[in-house]
């Protein structure tokens, strides 16, 4: 199976998907192991580090981007022809913390396409433990060249 970075523009230290586990016509399952030496753990609850919820959500959004990009490539379009940009986040529910060293399973599903927006749902588990659920939508955009300002 190809590398995650072949399909999405994210790179370390802001890449939160390690590998694709499986995919179907309407979704994708990925995996991420949170290394204990990740820099953010030094400041996020020192002495009892936990993975920030916003980064867990970002792992879901990157998995969604990976699903959509892989689908574009499967339809004969290069991955560089566009990127899914987050348009809306809703109904995020955090159920359990994730600690350094844990491996999470991330699942995204496409729900519907309306007026150019792709509505998706996402979930994260650590083993059998539910970690979070989130609803989100994205729009597919061609990247614009930035001069860095």
Structure characteristics:
149 residues, mainly beta, Thiol Ester Dehydrase, Chain A
CATH superfamily: Hotdog Thioesterase
Radius of gyration: 15 Å
* Count of alpha/pi helices: 1
Beta-strand fraction estimate: 35-45%
Mean pLDDT: 92
Ranges where pLDDT stays below 50 over 5 or more residues in a row are none
**So what's the CATH class?**
Alpha Beta
Task: Tell me the count of domains.
Answer: 1
Q: Largest sheet, order of strands side by side?
A: 1-2-4-5-6-3
Total beta strand runs: 6
DSSP helix fraction? 10-25%
CATH-defined architecture: Roll
Distance between the termini: 37 Å
Structural class: mainly beta
Major β-sheet, in short? 6 strands, antiparallel
CATH fold-level assignment: Thiol Ester Dehydrase, Chain A
Give an overview in words.
There is one protein chain. The chain has one helix at residues 53-74, and strands at residues 19-24, 27-33, 83-94, 103-114, 117-126, 129-141. The chain has 149 residues and is mainly beta. It has one domain (4-141): Thiol Ester Dehydrase, Chain A (Roll), CATH 3.10.129. A hairpin with a 2-residue loop joins strand 4 (103-114) and strand 5. It is globular, with a radius of gyration of 15 Å.
